[in-house]
User: Fold Vitamin B12 import ATP-binding protein BtuD from Cupriavidus laharis.
Amino acid sequence: MTQVAWQGTDRVPAGQRGGQPEWSGMARTDASGAIPGGGAIAPSGPMAPGAPLADMGLQTGAQQSQQTHEQARTGGEVILDLQHISLSFGGVKALTDISFDVCEHEIRAIIGPNGAGKSSMLNVINGVYHPQQGRIVFRGEERRQMHPTAAARQGIARTFQNIALFKGMTVLDNIMTGRNTQFRTGFLAHALWWGPARNEEMRHRQKVEEVIDFLEIQSIRKTPVGRLPYGLQKRVELARALAAEPSMLLLDEPMAGMNVEEKQDMCRFILDVNRQFGTTIVLIEHDMGVVMDISDRVVVLDYGKKIGDGTPDEVKGNPDVIKAYLGTSH
Ligand SMILES: Nc1ncnc2c1ncn2[C@@H]1O[C@H](COP(=O)(O)OP(=O)(O)OP(=O)(O)O)[C@@H](O)[C@H]1O
Ligand SMILES: [Mg+2]
Assistant:
């Protein structure tokens, strides 16, 4: 039987269809923290380039976050409920009647082939796009038209598929922009560096320094972002999102274009954010090994429609999902 790796999610050409997708990547630990199949748990740290993801110490992060994940799986409260969402651009139906929910503290993945509607869905959640149909209930309140800054004030932060940073500004200043929605005192007070404004800015700077420490980017804090390699720019974008102290983090392909080592680091940070801060994470990612390892639940889109929803194991066995990726069911 032909083996097809779930690495990229480009639609598979008809001539190559058939077979069983191989959900390669990082093994999910079982309840005891052991890796199914008996693999050893490696300590985290630098790994040889090209090492298989399963050998890179990610199990340590997954194991540490097991308790949080179990809580999410076994009854975390629904904090975001998307009901019958439809979104069109002229004649293009980006999303058709999509319903799914997100529970507090979970890692919820959205997957699907190119053009499936994943980024559109994220843009609906943080108010960039307004669906023509459907309801969005966030923390018990139905949202109508919402601006992204309002979503940010409600604790929703995000990163973008294409890095959206100020390339000429330093890492520190870029991360500081993540605090914008938190400023309470006025522009004039800040301009004069006066009283409460001064105290407030000190608090913001302290928070930013905490994020810099957390993501281990102290050495590049004064470097202009445009001079950094791609993988580090992605990490800075995560830092900017974290600086907003979100309760929900939307990540649009945070590992796209990264090498294996950079992916390992990013996985560890995502798991640590989830575990240490309890942040709910909605993740779009094409690397199926990563998705299947770190997600609690996965929703699958194809051509703007939902074709699967469940735990990684349920989704892996879903004939419609296999068909969407391979073009055939069996
Ligand atoms: N602003 C827009 N204007 C017009 N069409 C759009 C817009 N945004 C998305 N679309 C269309 O909606 C569909 C879904 O696009 P979307 O970017 O959400 O897919 P995706 O699943 O994120 O794909 P990829 O994996 O390539 O990032 C595509 O047909 C796309 O061309
Ligand atoms: Mg996209």
